Every structure is written in structure tokens, then in C-alpha cells.
Amino acid sequence: MSTFPSRRFRPALCLLVALQGACGPLVWALPGLPGVAAPATSAAPAPVNPFTAEAIAARRAEVQKQIAATRSELAKLPEGISEDPASWLTQETALLERIDAVGAEQQRTWQHAADLAKAAAEVEERTRTRRPAEATLKPPFGLALLDQLYTERDELEQAGVALKRDVANAETALQEARATLGDKDRDRRAVRGAAEKEVDAKTAPVNLRIASLECQLAEETLLLREHALKSLKLEQSLLEPKGKLLRPRFEWLRVHLILGPEEAAALEQKQLKRAAELDRAISLARREAEKVTQVVIATERRGATEKNSEELESRRANRQTANLTLSVLTAQRERLAEEATVLATRQRVLGDEMSAPELRALAEANQAALDQLERERRRDATVLLRNRQELQDWQSRLTRAPVAGETIGPWAGERVKRLMAWIELSQAETVDVDRLRTGRRRMQEEIGERVHLFSWRNVVPLVRDGAVAAWNYEVFSVQDQPVRVKTILTVLLLVVLGFHGARWGSERLSHTVFRRLGLNTGRRAAWQTLGFYALFLLVLAIAFNLFHISLTQFSVVSGALAVGIGFGSQNLISNFLSGIILLIEQPVNQGDVIEIDGQRVTVERLGPRSTIVRTLDNTHVIVPNSRLLEQPVINWTLSDNVVRRHFRVGVAYGSDTRKVSTLLQDVMGGLEPVRKEPPPFVEFADFGDSALVFEIYFWVGVESPMIEESELRHRIAEALAAAGIVIAFPQRDVHLATAKPLQVVIARATGGGEVKPAAEGEDLSPRAEGTPTVG
User: What does the H/E/C string look like for 117-179?
Assistant: First the structure.
């Protein structure tokens, strides 16, 4: 009988399993389940650390029991049963196996954390009881020991870079694990709520079990991510104290370095042995290359047919691989002498046997050799990657051939063997190049400790190379076409120059062509603006076409932006289109005198969005272009700058009207600003209440009508006064209707404002104070 709980107990058990990740490896039990004791109720258990070796092992053991139970139940299912139970058990088994895999990863992480804790304790102990550097180093204090310290320092630097990247990735993984746990916990609560409502009595317990297992998997994953991040940060924190422990040893050894002949002799013996091995390998590779060449010649003599074409290509590839093998071995043989030279040179540098100029020259040559080695390394890495891909393709093809019924000759297996040998040699070549690069970098550092290597001659190439790299940097690509920094900057420069060129060209066009066509200032300005727009659009089209940037490539972006811009800048677009219409129709031109809201203004400039006008008070007003089209605007100078003015003159009743008319006509004819064509005229307009009304009409220029009207009024007043004609003013006649005669009383005003009747015989002449009163 299976020890796994029956399916009717699973909904309750899965809730307890979900709590297991947070409460530690506690074994919960349900009444009636075999082999499980009921939990104690006397006292709450102490918190258990879920990330200990015992806790992780206990959780794994429990999960493995559940895996065995589900597999047993899956094996006991009859053949005719529906697919649902089998699917559910399979899903449960998969989730439990994933939980067990996470548990195994937790055990490895715990072991790594324990090792790091031991290392941290050792570092702390070494830091606390720091010994002298000479006591921690073992003789001989030669170049080999110095290189060993160099290696330790480089490993610490590389570990710092790698750990910084790993910590960032672990933090991201931790955030994802927390988010996943939140999602799974919400799903579990939703499934539990559905199970409590008994929406579906058949599937609800199973769904709750699956949701609980997914939640448990998320909890275990979160626990793993948290402690993995802690381990990485602990390992990262150990780098600095390790570096502090290494630095005194490094500095002491540099001062007390002993360069003896024994070390050089041992290295020479090692190189001789390596040279003999390479000589044998070169001889064998030369014979192999000749053999492969003979095979290729024999295959070519048979003729290239459809059947053996692939074999011929493979044989030729083998010949190329054999030649490359020979060249790489030869390069390794030559590199031995270079390594010996680098070692001898380092000994001279460390022994202070070279002068400062020699060291600077050596540093320059060494840097050039380092650059060459870096190029070789990148080239070898590219070749190695290509050959690995070819090897994978051949291995995959050989694996699929028997299944697909494809027949491949023995030459395919030979190609695979040669590729494997070549890849192994390429890896050894990479190690050789890296070893030589390391030696040269260390020599460069040792030279830099003795002389100042900074030179503008070295900086200029670096700046030039950096500028070239930045100039050719690919920012993005459009339809598989790279858009580089140089493309963007060149387009921007061309647009700026084209903007100023279009403005200059439109101004030259206005001054030379439009002026000769007889256009006035306003129309020339309008056509100049239109010409600027046309030339600038032409420059934009040339710029995009010159650098293979099609306007259709921006259709998606422009379509998305058009929706937002259309709603957010309706007024801006309306004003811009209104400006284009104003420039084409030209109802308002530069220099025109217009009237807006009862205020007369002069147009100074028509812009793409607004028009700038100047009032008579010499203030500037910015008028949106749409307003000039949507509202009535009086243009005083649309066709010409001549306007008609008129005003009224009133003379007293009894004046000779014809004389007045002639006099006014003569005055207007004698004023120079008044136009003779059309001629001015006078109209006897009306019999007013207090005057005979005459209206005068005349035409003047729109530039200064107020000054001309003022002068005309002055002259009219002078002419009428000279002719004895009175300019009328308001008069009132008072008519009194009474039933009896009016009584007239002459009275005298006192100082307090009181009026007293005058005494008999009192003098009331104008010399005396008094006020006649009519009563």
C-alpha cells in the first residue's frame, strides 16, 4: 500500500506544505494519516532556520518521498482510466522534481557559503595576526615567485569584475523570485477560495494541490536566491582584505628580488624541451599536410561529380586545416624565442640595468607588440568559433544520418577528427598567446614603475583611435542598415548648413529676381519665405537620400507621433497652415497697415506660426496666423497706400454757404500731402442744431494721416477766421411763458452768501460788489 496520503487528504496537506518553506523542515500531520505523529500543542516551537544542512536535507527527503508516492500511484493507474488523473499525477511529479532540484542547488549553495565562511575566518585571522611579508614567502625570491604574486593579483581583479556582474544578476533574479512568489501565492489563495466554495468538487482539490506545490517551488527558489546573493556578497567582501594581505608581500618582493642564474637555466631547459616537442610536431604536421594534399589531388583527378563534390570540398578543407596546423605550430616554435627574450628583458628591467631613454623605447616597442598580440588573439578566437560551429554541424549530421537513411563516406569521420585536433591546437595557441601577453603586460608595468611613460605621442594615437571608433559607432539600425554616429552628425551638419544656405539663397532670390519683377516689399517677403521653405525641404530630402535613410523608415514612428502631436498641438498646426495660406494668398504682406480689434498696426514680419505687428505706440504685438484668417481684418494697404479721410466743419447760421464751400476747397487744394487725384471735394451735409454742417473728403497717404488732418484743421480755422466766418458752437434760446409780468429785484450779496435788498440810493455800479437778481 502506498504511503502517500489519499487524495481526499491532499487539499489539507498541500496547505501545510505551502507553509513548510517559511516555517522550516517541520513535519506536519493530519489525524488518521499513517506513520505521522500529531503536532504538540503545549508550546509554540522555536523558529527554525530553513537554510541549514539538516533543514535542507529534511525537506529534500520529504519531497523525495512524495515523488516516490506519486510515481507509485501513477504506475497503479489502470489502463482504461481517463487521462485527467494521469495528467494530474504527472504534473505533481514534475513540480516535486523541480522542488527537489532546487533543494539540491540549495545544498550546493549552503556548502559554498560554508566554505566562504571558513575562508572569511582564515582571512580575518591572517589580518588580525599579520606576519611580516618575508615570513610568508618561500625562497627563492626570484622571478617565478614574482609572477606567482602577479597571478594572484590578476585573479583578484578578474574575480572583482566577475563578482560585480554576478551580484547584479543575482539581485535581478531575487527580484524576479519575489515577484513570482507573490503571483503564485495569489493564485493559491484564489484556488483555495474556489475550493472552499466547492465550485468543482472533482478538480478543486487537485488544483489546490498544484497551486500549493507551485507556491512551495517559488518559496524554495526565493530562499535559494536570497542565500546565493548573500554568498556572492560575502565572496565580494573578501576581495579587499585579500588584496590588503597581498600588497605588502608584493612590495617586499619587488624590493628584495633576487635574479639568479639558476632560474634562467631552469627556464632554458624547459624551453629546450618544449622546442624539441614542437619540432617533432612540426615534422609530423608537414608530413600530414603532404599526405592530405596527395589525397586532394587524387580526388580531383577522379573528377568533380555530384556524388563526390561534397567529399572533394571536405578533402580541400582538410588540406586547409593541415596547412593552418603547420603554420600555428611554426608560430609557437618562433614564440619560444620571443618568450625567452621577454624574460631576459624583464630581468634587465628589474635589475635596473637600462637607462631611462632605453626604457621608454622599450615601452613603446612592447606596447606595439601587445597590440599585435591582441589582434592575433581576436583573429584566433574568430577562427576557433567558426571551426567549433563546423564541428557541431558535422557531429549533428553524423548523428542524424542513420535515422534519415543518409549514407556518408568515411571522409566525414576524418573531417570530424581533424576538426577536433585543430580545435585542441587552437586552444593551446590561445593559451600560448595569453601567456606571452601576460609577460609583456607585466614588463610594461615594471617599466612604468621606473620611468614616466606618459607622452603626447602616445596619447594622440589613442585619442585618434577613440575618435574613429566613436565616429564609426553604430547607434541603431533601420531595415538592416546601420546608422552610425558619423551619419547622424553629418546629417545634422548638412541640415544646419542647408538651413542657413536656404535662408541666404531666398534672400538673394528676393533681392535679385523678385525686385526686378516689380513686386512690392510685402510680396517679396512672402515669396522669400516660400522660397526658403522650398529650399530647406530640398536640403532635407537630399540629406536623407544621401545617407540611404528613407522617409518611409520613419512611417511607423511618425504615425505614432502624429496621433499625439495632432491632439496636443492643434493650435500650433493650425497656425502653421494658416501661415502657409497667408504666404500663398497674400491677403496680408510685410509692411501692410492693418486694423485689428479697432487698432491700427503695421505688419513687420510674417512667421510660420505668428505674425509680428507694431502699433502706433511703437509696441509689438504677436498675432497668431489663424486669427488673421478666421476674423475680419481691415488692410489699409492691400492694393495701394492711399486712403480717403473725411471730417465735419460747422459754421454759424447766416454764413455764406457757397463761400464757405469754396474756401474749404481752396484750403484742401493748397495742402501738399492732400492728393490731387482723386480730387478732394466739399459737401454741404446738414442743417445742424447749432451750425451749418459741411463734410470734406480728401485722399492722403496712409503713413501719417493724423499729422495731415491736424494741419488741415489748423488751416481751415485760419482761413475761416480771416474771412470773418464764425465756427459755430452750441447755442440755446430760453423762452419763458408766464401769466403776469416778471418782477426784477436788484440785490446785494453779503459776505456769508446772504442776499439783501439794496438801500435806496445805493450805488450798484460794476465797481461795487453785488449780484443782480431776477425774481
Answer: HHHHHHHHHHHHCCCCHHHHCCCCCCHHHHHHHHHHHHHHHHHHHHHHHHHHHHHHHHHHHHH
| Cα distance between the two ends of the chain | 143
Ramachandran angles phi, psi of 509, nearest 5°? -65, -40
> What are φ and ψ of residue 208, in 5° steps?
-65, -40
Identity at 650, one-letter amino acid code: G
**Chain Cα centroid distance, residue 419:** 44
Cα angle, residue 550 at apex, residues 546 and 551 outer, rounded to 5°:
120
Map grid coordinates 499625439 to a residue.
564
- 673 preceded by cis ω (within 30°)? no
| Short-list 630, 628, 643, 633, CA closest to 526 | 628
Is the pLDDT at 768 greater than 60? The verdict is no
* Integer-rounded Cα radius of gyration of the chain: 53
How high is the pLDDT of residue 120? 92
Backbone angles phi, psi at 621, to 5 degrees: -125, 135
Cβ proximity of 613 and 623 under 8 Å: yes
Residue 367 exposed, middle or buried by CB count within 10 Å (0-12, 13-18, 19+): middle
Question: What is the CB-side half-sphere exposure of residue 229 using CA atoms within 13 A?
Answer: 15
Pairing between β-strand 681-687 and β-strand 692-701 as defined by DSSP bridges: antiparallel
How far apart CA 636 and CA 6 sit, in angstroms, is 101
Residue 35 pLDDT exceeds 50: no
Output the nine-digit C-alpha cell for 391. 564541428
CA 563 to each of CA 465, 559, 578, 621: distance values in angstroms, whole numbers, following the listed order: 44, 7, 20, 32
Residue 561 has pLDDT above 70, yes or no: no
Q: For residue 449, is pLDDT > 90?
A: no
d(CA 242, CA 155): 11
- Cα 448-453-458 angle, rounded to 5 deg: 135
Residues 6+ apart with CB under 8 A from 706: none
To the nearest whole percent, how much of the chain has pLDDT over 90? 21
DSSP sequence for 540-606: HHHHHHHTT--GGGGHHHHHHHHHHHHHHTHHHHHHHHHHHHHHHH-SS-TT-EEEETTEEEEEEEE
Residue 327 or 636, more confident: 327
How long a stretch of residues is the chain?
A: 775
